[in-house]
Amino acid sequence: VEESVLNIGKFNSMVSLAAFFPFKSAQAALENMNAISEGKRGFLLSVVHADLKLFLETNLPLSGKKKPVLGVSDAKIGAALQEEFTISIQTGGVVAEIGRGLRLHFHSLVKGLTGQAASKAQLGLGHSYSRAKVKFNVNRVDNMIIQSIALLDQLDKDINTFSMRVREWYGYHFPELIKIVSDNSMYCRLAQLIGNRKELSEESLESLEEVVMDHAKAQAILDASRSSMGMDISPIDLINIERFSDRVVSLAAYRLELQEYLRSKMSQVAPNLAALIGEVVGARLISHAGSLTNLAKYPASTVQILGAEKALFRALKTRGNTPKYGLIFHSTFIGRAAAKNKGRISRYLANKCTIASRIDCFSVVFTEVPTSVFGDKLRGQVEERLSFYETGEVPRKNVDVMKEAVKEATGVAAEIKRKLEKKEKKRKKREKKLQELEENGDANGDDEVENGEADTPVVKKKKKQAAEEMEVQAEENGAEETPGKKKKKRKAEEVQEEEAAVTDNGAEDTPAKKKKKKKTEAAEAEEEAPETPVTEKKKKKKKKEAEN
Amino acid sequence: MKEETGKEVKESSTYPVADSTNKTESFIISSNPSGVFISRGKEDALVTKNMVVGESVYGEKRISVEEGETKIEYRAWNPFRSKLAAAILGGVDQIHIKPGAKVMYLGAASGTTVSHVSDIVGPEGLVYAVEFSHRSGRDLLNVAKKRTNIIPIIEDARHPHKYRMLVGMVDVIFADVAQPDQTRIVALNAHNFLKNGGHFVISIKANCIDSTAAPEAVFASEVKKMSSENMKPQEQLTLEPYERDHAVVVGVYSLLPDIMVRSTWAQLFRMESVWQRSPLKRVLKE
């Protein structure tokens, strides 16, 4: 068998090419590939892509006396095809052999396709597939969270180091200030403000008080400045110190901004986790686990001692007591529990954390919008349990709480969806105006599929899209994503629209949209650029529909 | 260097090129497959010819050599970082990766060794680099951008059917995946993509397969697993000075007809007589 496979002549005698269907475009090829690899999880609902179905329908003699046997190399597709068509499918064994032979002699069987062309096609498809995979992860914003929390920690360390440096430096000139003011950022601001201590006078008392917020302290500073034993300092040195303390102050301000950013990101990515244990602790958990998915996969016992691995393994090896809490310790609940209940609360909290992280990670597929309803309910439960330990009042049953939560969640989700739809309609109207002013040529060739889907703005089936392009498609079709992401993409599209048609309407758009502007990732913008023709086409289609 | 002593070095063509500044010469050793060179000078190094002149992939040293009119650039190949280089320097007989070959590289990581393989196979060959990790995958994509004979596949090598659209038949499979079921992974990929008579080169990390057993036992058990999957091991050597408890196994892949396959084919084409003849024996003898 394998010899005949090796020899092209013999193989040809056994196998003849019935039909060959090249993919229409790189995009179609990518879709098909994703259909195969992702299967039911992908944007496409089944393993069998529409192209494949079409190909088989046109080329298989389905009706008639001789029922053919279709050899399929992939068992999953085989099963799916068996359901679709009524022919008998065979997989494995011989089919695998034939498959190998086909692969080997592919370019000689199909006319017009040389080995070179095949490898080029493979290269292109491989790149786009891999890029889609990697980019998919880049868009999973839990990366941002991991990076921000790491940056936050680093910033803290650095700000502290620099503040120490400012203290030392300025302390040569005004040593008493170090003892009076203990807060780092306050000290830096004072150093900026005071400058040369000899110039302090009664007028500056007011501004001092502003910074220190304490009249007595301000007075003490004033007195100390007069009788200070620090050495004199030249204006140039002073300028340098001021510049440095300037930097430190701005770093501290940046740190606050970063915290805000982290907060907003957490509420987008993992709102339930953030509602339950707070943004910082939640972000730390995610970063320690590596990603939100990893955190969701861990059992609750792992989440409980995440961060205390050293103590855990030491205890395991020496048969001692294992730690009761890891990173979770820093949430407020553990601190509030009495000493003997800390372990119990920690375990309970870890259980709820696991639930919350799983909801965040996986339920975005089914509920289009992430809400923090579950997180709040879970938090309520932990509070109740805490109070139970203190006072003895019996907490509510878990079943009841969850029922409430589900009801609320669907209600909130519907609300948000309605709002988003309204925004969509407004945007479409605006675009319509833009397009009318643009008067671009009509190019609506192969948008039939998207057209059909666009008719149903409330498309509930939101699956995690493998390809960036399909993400945009899905959005255009009304399927929902996180509102933040959607606005981001809309912003990017708006930017392109501006580039395409600079009109008054376009200018009107940007100020309104600017408020919702979030950091557009460079990669996303890159991807958006080649998609402009595609998205533009779809917008026109939508406009046409809206008119009809 | 180990491979110099006691080996029949058939120098089919030598390029004793002297670079005036640091007196490096490089010449082809044909016991190693062509495409891999050794540069002599202050320090000897294993080098490959750089396909993308002027660029270092991972910060390795580049050596520029004048050859008459043209300048050829070579990149140093670090055997401590790359198992394939360690195998070559350790004296493996054949790595089967030669110019124009199609190679499937499982476990491509960030593309450091893949870039050298791409240098060896040259513009006519192809390297299908499979890597599952996304972070490494990003680096791999960057390497693949510059070198058009690398096809990056960010996918789990355990499911070759997922990327079967991207891969044709290959001549060599190189596997450096460091997974306990790596033999099964290589076998799956070989069944799908490795041509008959193709070769495989597998790097085995004893710790990874079974950290409690002795490394020799682990290697032996892996070799046994391979033989049961139509993969015939031909060489095995340890990567001793460069890596600890690592081994490289080189072998050939040839299909023995399955009994089930036989009978199905026979039913389909009524060629039962084929099996009584010698093709089977021929295959076994090799």
Protein structure class of chain A: mainly alpha
Radius of gyration of chain A: 32 Å
Q: How many strand units of chain B?
A: 12
Spell out the helices and strands of chain A N to C.
HHHHEHEHHHHHHHHHHHHHHHHHHHHHHH
The major beta sheet of chain A can be summarized as: 2 strands, parallel
Proportion of residues in helical segments of chain B: 25-40%
Label the overall shape of chain B: globular
Give the topology string of chain B: H per helix, E per strand: EEEEEHEHEHEEHEHHEEHHH
What's the total number of strands of chain A? 2
Radius of gyration of chain B, taken over Cα atoms and rounded to an integer in Å: 20 Å
Largest sheet of chain B: 7 strands, mixed
What distance lies between the first and last C-alpha atoms of chain A, to the nearest angstrom?
61 Å
Shape of chain A: elongated
Order of strands across the main sheet of chain B: 8-7-6-9-10-12-11
What this model shows, in words?
Chain B: It comes from Nibea albiflora. Chain B: This is rRNA 2'-O-methyltransferase fibrillarin. Chain A: This is Nucleolar protein 56. The complex is a heterodimer of chains A (548) and B (286). With 548 residues, chain A is an all-alpha fold. Chain A contains 28 helices and two strands. A two-stranded parallel ribbon of chain A has the order 1-2. Chain A is elongated and about 110 Å long. Chain B has three domains: 3-76, no CATH class; 83-255, Vaccinia Virus protein VP39 (Rossmann fold, 3-Layer(aba) Sandwich), CATH 3.40.50; 259-286. Chain B has helices at residues 83-90, 112-121, 134-146, 182-193, 206-209, 215-227, 259-269, 273-276, 279-285, and strands at residues 25-28, 36-40, 45-49, 62-67, 70-77, 102-106, 126-130, 150-153, 170-175, 194-205, 231-238, 246-253. Chain B is globular and about 55 Å long. Mean pLDDT of chain B is 79; it is low at 1-23, 27-31 and 258-286. With 286 residues, chain B is α/β, with parallel strands linked by helices. In chain B, 29% of the residues lie in helices and 27% in strands. Chain B is built from nine helices and twelve strands. In chain B, strand 6, helix 2 and strand 7 form a beta-alpha-beta unit. Chain A binds chain B through residues 1-3, 5-6, 14, 29, 32-33, 36-37, 73-74, 93-94, 96-97, 99-100, 103-104, 106, 115, 118-119, 122-123, 125-127, 129-131, 133-134, 137, and chain B through 126, 128, 134, 137-138, 140-141, 144, 148, 151-155, 159, 161-169, 191-193, 195-197, 254-255, 257-258, 260-262, 264-265, 268-269, 279, 283.
